[in-house]
Automatic annotation (TrEMBL):
Signal peptide: none annotated. The gene is rsmD. NCBIfam families: 16S rRNA (guanine(966)-N(2))-methyltransferase RsmD. PROSITE patterns: N6_MTASE. Its EC number is 2.1.1.171. Keywords: Methyltransferase, Transferase. GO terms for molecular function: 16S rRNA (guanine(966)-N(2))-methyltransferase activity; nucleic acid binding. InterPro entries: DNA_methylase_N6_adenine_CS, RNA_MeTrfase_RsmD, SAM-dependent_MTases_sf. The keyword Hydrolase does not apply. It holds the Pfam family Cons_hypoth95. It comes from the Bacteria. This is 16S rRNA (Guanine(966)-N(2))-methyltransferase RsmD. The lineage of its organism: Bacteria, Bacillati, Bacillota, Clostridia, Eubacteriales.
Length: 188
C-alpha cells in the first residue's frame, strides 16, 4: 500500500495484517481519485470517515487538499493512521479522532467544520448502515453545497438513488468493489 500521486507519491504506508483492516486497494484508490480530480482541486477539507489505515485521507492530502479529518472506532486503526501521517509528514494537516462515524459527524458539527469530500469505507462484515450515516450527514449539514460523498461497498450492497437530500450521480465498479458517489440533490 502506497501513496499513488501528488507530493508524497510512492511513499509506502503501513497497515495492520489480518482481517481487522481491509484497506482500499491502490487500484481502487487511484481510480476513485481520478474520477474526482476536478472536484479535488477545489476541496479544502477531506473526511476519511472509517479511517482504517488512513490511506484515502493521506492520498487527498498528497494531492493538495489542505486538511483531512480521520475517524475510526478502532484504537489499532488510529495508531496506524498516526504512523502513516508521520511517515508522510502530514501530522500538521490532520485531525485524528478515536470514535464512531456518528460521533465524528457530531464532532464536525459541534466545531462548525464544513467539508468538501467524505469517503466512507466501513468494515463490510460489521453491517454498518451507510444509509443512516448519510442521513446523519444530511441532518448535521457538514457537507458543503458542492460536496461529494463517496461510499465503498460490496457488489451485494445496492445503494439507493436518493438518501434524504442526496442523490447518487455515479457508481463505479472495480472488480468486486463498488463506489457510489452522492451529492446534494439540488446542486447544479
Amino acid at each position: 500500500m502506497r501513496v499513488i500521486a501528488g507530493e508524497k507519491r510512492g511513499t509506502k504506508l503501513v497497515s495492520i495484517g489480518g482481517d481487522s483492516i481491509r484497506p482500499t486497494t491502490d487500484k481502487v484508490k487511484g481510480a476513485v481519485f481520478s474520477s474526482v480530480q476536478i472536484e479535488l482541486r477545489e476541496a479544502q477539507v477531506f473526511i476519511d470517515l472509517f479511517g482504517g489505515s488512513g490511506a484515502m485521507g493521506i492520498e487527498a492530502l498528497s494531492r493538495g487538499v489542505p486538511q483531512a479529518y480521520f475517524f475510526d472506532i478502532s484504537r489499532d486503526s488510529i495508531g496506524i493512521i498516526k504512523k502513516n501521517l508521520k511517515l508522510t509528514g502530514f501530522e500538521g494537516k490532520a485531525i485524528v479522532k478515536n470514535c464512531s462515524a456518528e460521533e465524528g459527524i457530531g464532532f464536525l458539527c459541534k466545531n462548525s467544520v464544513k467539508c468538501d469530500m467524505i469517503y466512507m469505507d466501513p468494515p463490510y462484515k460489521d453491517g454498518i448502515s451507510m444509509i443512516s450515516i448519510v442521513e446523519k450527514i444530511c441532518e448535521k449539514k457538514i457537507l458543503n453545497s458542492d460536496g461529494i460523498i463517496m461510499m465503498e461497498h460490496e457488489k451485494s450492497v445496492i445503494m439507493p438513488i436518493t438518501i434524504k437530500s442526496f442523490a447518487k450521480y455515479k457508481e463505479k465498479k472495480y472488480g468486486t468493489t463498488f463506489v457510489s458517489f452522492y451529492s446534494w440533490e439540488n446542486f447544479g
